[in-house]
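Aggregate trends can hide what the representation actually does to any particular protein. For completeness, the protein is quoted in full, as a sequence line and a line of structure tokens.
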Amino acid sequence: MITTRVFGRTKDGRKVLAFTIADGRRSVTVLNYGGIIQRLVVPAADGRLTDVVLGYRTVKEYEENGGYLGALIGRFGNRIGEGMLTVDGVRYDLFKNDRGNHLHGGKEGFNKKIWAHAIVGDTLALSIISPDGEENYPGNLKVTAVFTFKDGILRIHYRAVSDKKTAVNLTDHAYFNLNGESSGTALDNVLWLDSDEITPTNATMIPVGGFKKVQNTPFDFNTPKPIGQDIDADDIDLKQGNGYDHCYVLKNGAGNFAQYATAYGPKTGIAMDCYTDMPAVQFYAGNGLNQQGKWSKYGKRMGFCLETQAIPNNVNVAEYAEKGSSYLAAGQVYDYCAEYRFYLK
């Protein structure tokens, strides 16, 4: 069952709605502002209902605070080096909002938009039209994100189509802490990632080519370990990211829906299996968190993100595009899914 309520209004008076999808005692709340996952409640081992995603209580906080907490990201999740996009020989200079690079859609990405909505049974569909030239991207782009939450499985189905060739890389920026959103750092959350390599970056966090094997490095999560175990190790890529903020190349490959991660909160017993058919995931350990959240101050590393996507900057690096290109031809359908399956371990 989906219930709808008014969450608040934007600074310019637009109504923001909150949609809560109930799944027994579990529930997820999604806003039409930014497609934000504002709340995700599941029972802990002791039966206590636990909110496992970071967020805010008011529209004003989502408008004014950074961090992209819980938001849908587009047109391009993650980074494009120097904001440079070339389509069929034509260069498009995108807005540079992160150390001379383009990040998460630019000056006003999809996380700041009011999305249209449709409810059919227990399914919530959010949609948006990004006009030709917005953030200097070519093409009128139609985007839909469909949310379902059933049997403990949160599923996000992304679809997009453009009338001109363009670049698209959609993702969700939920911050998880499986011990609870105000329980302290997420460093004791245990993580397994099905990946043998990351994409190393330059000093401004742009992958510019090549792959780095994770074996015998702090980036290896093929054997489950606490997120904080190696996060401060002496490693150049870790230092540049101030901790984990790196793209992991997944073994499943683009278009093959498979499990790529498991996370576990030892204080609650809540576990989360993650599935996608996208070729990569950005693992971000919340190194830059520093804001007042729903019920407490969110400090450094109080939540982590698993942002499924194509490899960042693949529009400028051919070997990354080979693993899943973000270029979308006119009329071609962008079609990917992400799932988060919650249970007690």
